[in-house]
Amino acid sequence: MSAYQNDIKAVAALKESAGNSWSAINPESVARMRAQNRFKTGLDIAKYTAAIMRKDMAEYDADSSVYTQSLGCWHGFIGQQKLISIKKHLKTTNKRYLYLSGWMVAALRSDFGPLPDQSMHEKTAVSGLIEELYTFLRQADARELDLLFMDLDAARDAGDKSKQDEVQAKIDNFETHVVPIIADIDAGFGNPEATYLLAKKMIEAGACCIQIENQVSDEKQCGHQDGKVTVPHEDFLAKINAVRYAFLELGVDDGVIVARTDSLGAGLTKQIAVTKEPGDLGDQYNSFLDCEEVSAADMKNGDVVLNRDGKLLRPKRLPSNLFQFRAGTGEDRVILDCITSLQNGADLLWIETEKPHVGQIAAMVNRIREVIPTAKLVYNNSPSFNWTLNFRQQVFDTMTAEGKDMSAYDRAKLMSVDYDETELAQIADEKIRTFQADGSREAGIFHHLITLPTYHTAALSTDNLAKGYFAEQGMLAYVKGVQRQELRQGIACVKHQNMAGSDIGDNHKEYFAGEAALKAGGKDNTMNQFG
């Protein structure tokens, strides 16, 4: 017997024990409301989705073709529409997540207005967006189930037993819109205690997976900007521990931690690591510093020096009071970061790169897997990359190495529309199309995300509407470019009253007041124009 039928029986028994005072309560209506409210708290969601991620990670370890994906969403409605679309077109949410981007929280969700990705926004805006996303996903569940309940009632009224059984099976086997969120906590927004407190808020809101990076909190930069400053490993590991303690305190024992390293593009550190003996973790971190050997006589007032192997080394110190790493050490620092993070509580890695290149990513992951064979990545398929130019240049270089005549191409100008129909462009587009599958097979990428896609799609669609509506097209710009497309593509929110919950509200009114209910969805509701 299904959970739905069990709830009907259980409530019927309760009603009977309560006597006549519950005579107006319909057990099936209660069962419907329970089905529409499967997840009572954010912790329920975090526990449910953590189990999904752990299962998906194990399946990826067995078969790298079953990678996972997500899109970054900056509003609950955007996340909701994404999952509704996935269910409509792909029939299942399996292996599809949501990503919560700190960049978009800063740019779109701060009371200060648009901010750069430098951890200046209110930290609770992050947990607030997680809660909002799950509120909208739960509402998507309620709406879809409500439509099924109405179909069930219609089939009963028509005496169509076959249709009743078909709809009841859909209710009993309903797949929720609630999926895992990988949530960005930036560099932890302060010291480890601050990281722990915010992680708790995020988990309580529903996050089963928290991504944290090894930059300095008060110097944090977007991963695709200059001026990034990393912290010694001991500092970063303390924050990983803080997140793990938050998960364990709240009972999400299989919560997932993504350790992000920005070392590939970060040439600076704010502090010299503490070291107790040669070769320890602090000494390894310090070994990458750009130093010059000095004698005691060479030292100036205020100099900082290191003692290594009996030599005095003066790290290069900038006017900003930051210390500089040696050029060319980025990849080695990434490898040490990743191995150390996995050995100290992280579950997944994020290597921030400057371009989308499977070979570059694979080279680093292969080195990590020499120590930790199950190492796997969350990878940022970033809109900060010029994907077209990058892949056309990769193909250009490959074709050149193969000895092909490339005189018809200018490598620096391959973005030009003039090349769109060429063999080179077609090969590049195919490599872009297969990038995720290739990266998961060859470079250990378990999860592919795009951080800012819905930021860009909102801007593009708004531009297309505005340029027509406020010019000669007028209302046709909306009707032809939006509403007509919604109708023809079956976009659910063309019935925006239904999407906002009007039918759910009408059905609740009927539960509560019976025939006396004043409902909004009658014959004069203009939503009926959309069938």
From TrEMBL:
Spell out the InterPro entries in the cross-references.
ICL/PEPM (IPR039556), Isocitrate_lyase (IPR006254), Pyrv/PenolPyrv_kinase-like_dom (IPR015813), Pyrv_kinase-like_dom_sf (IPR040442)
Per its UniProt record, the required cofactor names are: Mg(2+)
Q: Does the keyword Oxidoreductase apply?
A: no
- What residues bind Mg(2+), as annotated? 184
Catalysed reaction equations from the record:
D-threo-isocitrate = glyoxylate + succinate
One GO biological-process annotation of the entry reads: carboxylic acid metabolic process
- Residues of the active site are 222
Query: MF terms per GO, please?
Result: isocitrate lyase activity; metal ion binding
Instruction: Give the keywords, sorted.
Output: Lyase, Magnesium, Metal-binding
Return the cofactor note field.
Answer: Can also use Mn(2+) ion.
Give a Pfam family name. ICL
Query: What NCBIfam families does the annotation carry?
Result: PRK06498.1 (NF005074)
Q: What is this protein called?
A: Isocitrate lyase
Organism from which the protein derives: Halopseudomonas laoshanensis
